[in-house]
């Protein structure tokens, strides 16, 4: 059995390498193909889609986080009367941000699906994709119009128009792809059922624009109906699949697809999601969120020379001291987001295949990450020891907690199907398992701890928060050491008898890996 | 000879594939290595550096473009008295933007160099790199302090402090890398001169922080001296190499290095620059610049419900018409930037190796791209037919012209060493050569044409500009057709006799490629 596992490891590696190599391979293939195709129809510019997708991911990640800016720029005052109305405004803005984030990631998921079918591009497809991107980047604006004027049909009409045009462009891309079959996914290219695939994919793609057409027609009559239709359009596939999945888990019955069904466009929670693109999108979000505060600082926190001359007697240091809290917020949020990225990076290093459900948890985690700079800014904005400051610190802790928790959830999801989705090292009993668990649970635990401490010692909330900020990077640096000490302690506490029986196998495959190195 | 060339093509492909495969290969290697190393010293978490670099590129590209925001948010008025002071302010801000862009790209180039030596990372290096990134993202702020208060030592001290700490962290990374040799570049890893390489690289890295130390000491005595020192620090290596290169070209003498010299840290114009990272950085800049305007639109251009009720009688469409110019500017700039990205993408598809000089031209091109949204915004901000509007349109044309011209310059640079840097298809006489030339020169030509037209027909400048905006995407769609027609015309005009003599070889290798497909 041990040997069996070993070969599986190698197989996994091969799969992984195959997947990663596909891009360069396409690249060289594309030229051969382009020669072949140019001999056929005189038209040749087939290209690998790798960079097009990277650029699209960068654009979408910026757009997903754009609606956090209106939230971040809401000004707070200690005036109790204004506070309520500002809080209501803020709640609306946060809701808009979260909804936009969700909708943009839905569009992003559709984009991934499309380019899992179309694996190679040419100039025409690249230009069509750019047009599609332009409309996706406009979605947040139509959505914020909808939120600001819920009873006006304009917002919903604009939104529907954008979605319909995006759908049409995607259908055009599919049609173009199927008329140039060398652009398609190899599996579909080889298949004899191309016509069936084409119809099925077009059906799925056109479902959304057609529903949007209905929504826009209804908006003239009864606007609430259109909102309901829109909600159904976007979330029904996921809800239906979720119910089906729960059902299949509960009853244990197998939900079998027809053997001909397309491997994409299934909305299964275990449908593969391009790991590369999840990474690229997450990198984009982490990068833009990490620099959100420095954008503001560079623009707003350079004092006016005349003011410095008049009010601070040309003492620049004194003038800049006013902005102290902003610098602190910047460094704090950059460090926290950087470390959350680091955890994400460590996790995906050991993930061999990303699934749709993991993608969903990733989206939730990223949505919380987007709120971090704002929370940090709040932390330093209120007078020391005030009730507001305590609240701000606690909000920061809650955001960090959930951002970290959803990262942990991704790993737990992956563990359920670990043979397919995880590298052996981080599976149950793998030699990096404990270390990965420690990495992923460090932030949730620390955030929870800080939250509890601030509740008990509310007077020192800021100091506790600052200590947390400073301590966590060092905790990550010595984490491996800590995990080893903890493992030794656990082993010593719970099974002292087995301490000298090193040969007890936790799992067959581990005995082949030098797990002892970690424990001893 | 023909066969020789053929084999070279294959070799090129192999090199390319090798380079692209390196990442996944490292990935699998890292695990093997980590097992090996963990057996040696019990410490194991070697990883591929691919994603760390992608994240760093994303961060740096955002930071490089951040100083365009203060430029973009400068408000214009038609008041003649204010205009001069605003123009002066704007010039300063544009200068700050360009200088920041240049300095950040210098830091980025140093980062590339460092991670061409350190090819694999572990957790400690990842955390050190994040610390380094945090300081790099702070550079623009120190620089804008320097620009706003040129006579105050604080800005220069902060800048020097940042640079010194960045230098120290980089030195730490190098020392850490050389103490764990399996993290190093294979070439250095195999070499027997590791100690020499280490000393040489540390020398180059520490040169800048030490000069900055001098600059900060001098700033207390005579501030102008420190500015000169800083300028020398940053640009001397490039100027020296440039002079050396010109000299070697002019005299024809060979500038020979000692055979032991490090392949990196040479500052040669032909020093290789990771093509992957140039692409990632460019993608980041194009993405952030393309979405700059929508960021503002989403935040500022959602009207207040009470205002719409009072002033526009609840007519949202009328209220939004005020923002018409902003939407136009957004779509125009998004399309232009998208198409410039498309050209860049097409070029780098055929580039097999990027050099430092190409990187420099790329930086210049990107710096102009960064100014595009602003120029487009200006175009629509002034009353129709005014003098300001004409100027704004012309500025837009100039910016597009230079952005495109530097892209063309990259290709021309690559053509000088085409055997190393370009794919055979786009070399002189290759079958995509004419098409690539057309793609790269379309924007400079169109921008130049629009500029000339607006000078002649200044009354219709906006209409001409809009027609250009709308026409260019379609021109790209039918470009291949246009090129074919142009080639046939050229052939017909200049060598009608050769028209039927298809066997005349332009170059040996082309006769093997189906060049006829394009021409006929």
UniProtKB/TrEMBL annotation, chains A, B:
Q: Which residues cross the membrane?
A: 52-74, 94-115, 127-149, 155-178, 208-239, 327-348, 360-380, 392-416, 437-460, 472-494
Q: How does it sit in the membrane?
A: Multi-pass membrane protein
Task: Recall the GO molecular function terms of this protein's record.
Answer: potassium channel activity; proton channel activity
State the family it belongs to: Belongs to the TMEM175 family.
Query: What Pfam families does the annotation carry?
Result: TMEM175
From the UniProt entry, list the residue stretches annotated as the region Disordered: 1-31
Catalytic activity field: K(+)(in) = K(+)(out); H(+)(in) = H(+)(out)
Q: Where is the composition biased (Basic and acidic residues)?
A: 9-22
Entry keyword Transmembrane: yes
Q: Does the keyword Transmembrane helix apply?
A: yes
Database matches in InterPro entries: TMEM175-like
Cellular location(s) = Membrane
- What keywords are assigned to this protein? Ion channel, Ion transport, Membrane, Potassium, Potassium channel, Potassium transport, Transmembrane, Transmembrane helix, Transport
Q: Cellular component per GO?
A: membrane
The main location is membrane
The protein, known as = Endosomal/lysosomal proton channel TMEM175
Which PANTHER family does the UniProt record give?
A: ENDOSOMAL/LYSOSOMAL POTASSIUM CHANNEL TMEM175 (PTHR31462), ENDOSOMAL_LYSOSOMAL PROTON CHANNEL TMEM175 (PTHR31462:SF5)
Q: Which gene encodes it?
A: LOC107663387
In terms of domain of life, where is this protein from?
Answer: Eukaryota
């Amino acid at each position: 059995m041990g040997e069996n596992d070993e070969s599986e490891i190698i197989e996994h590696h091969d799969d992984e390498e195959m997947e990663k190599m596909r891009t360069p391979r396409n690249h060289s293939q594309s030229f051969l193909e382009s020669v072949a195709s140019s001999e056929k129809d005189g038209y040749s510019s087939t290209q690998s889609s790798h960079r097009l997708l990277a650029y699209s991911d960068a654009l979408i990640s910026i757009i997903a986080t754009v609606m956090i800016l209106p939230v971040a720029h809401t000004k707070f005052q200690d005036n109790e009367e204004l506070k309520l109305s500002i809080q209501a405004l803020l709640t609306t803005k946060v809701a808009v941000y979260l909804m936009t984030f969700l909708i943009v990631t839905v569009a992003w998921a559709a984009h991934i699906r499309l380019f899992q079918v179309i694996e190679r591009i040419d100039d025409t497809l690249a230009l069509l994709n750019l047009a599609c991107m332009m409309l996706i980047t406009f979605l947040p604006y139509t959505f914020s119009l909808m939120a600001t004027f819920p009873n006006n049909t304009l917002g919903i009409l604009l939104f529907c128009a954008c979605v319909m045009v995006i759908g049409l462009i995607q259908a055009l891309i599919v049609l173009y792809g199927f008329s140039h079959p060398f652009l398609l996914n190899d599996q579909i290219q080889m298949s004899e059922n191309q016509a069936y695939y084409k119809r099925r994919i077009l059906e799925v793609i056109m479902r959304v624009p057609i529903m949007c057409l209905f929504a826009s027609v209804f908006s003239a009559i009864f606007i609430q109906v259109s909102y309901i239709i829109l909600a159904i359009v976007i979330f029904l596939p996921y809800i239906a699949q979720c119910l089906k999945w729960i059902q299949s888990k509960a009853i244990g019955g197998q939900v079998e697809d027809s053997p001909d069904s397309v491997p994409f466009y299934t909305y299964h929670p275990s449908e593969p999601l391009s790991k590369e693109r999840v990474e690229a999108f997450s990198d984009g979000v982490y990068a833009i969120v990490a620099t959100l505060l420095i954008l503001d600082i560079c623009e707003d926190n350079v004092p006016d020379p005349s003011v410095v001359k008049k009010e601070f007697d040309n003492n620049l240091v004194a003038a800049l001291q006013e902005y102290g809290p902003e610098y602190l917020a910047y460094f704090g949020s950059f460090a926290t987001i950087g470390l959350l990225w680091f955890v994400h990076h460590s996790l995906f290093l050991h993930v061999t295949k990303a699934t749709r459900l993991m993608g969903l948890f990733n989206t939730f985690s990223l949505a919380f990450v987007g709120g971090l700079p704002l929370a940090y800014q709040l932390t330093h904005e209120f007078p020391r020891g005030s009730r507001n400051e305590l609240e701000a610190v606690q909000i920061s802790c809650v955001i960090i907690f959930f951002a970290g928790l959803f990262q942990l959830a991704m790993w737990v999801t992956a563990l359920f199907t670990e043979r397919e989705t995880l590298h052996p090292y981080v599976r149950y009993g793998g030699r990096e398992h404990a270390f990965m668990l420690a990495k992923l649970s460090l932030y949730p635990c620390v955030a929870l701890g800080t939250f509890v401490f601030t509740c008990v010692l509310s007077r020192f909330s800021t100091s506790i928060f600052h200590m947390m900020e400073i301590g966590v990077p060092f905790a990550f640096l010595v984490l491996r050491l800590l995990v080893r000490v903890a493992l030794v302690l656990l082993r010593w506490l719970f099974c002292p008898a087995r301490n000298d029986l090193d040969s007890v196998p936790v799992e067959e495959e581990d005995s082949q890996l030098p797990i002892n190195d970690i424990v001893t």
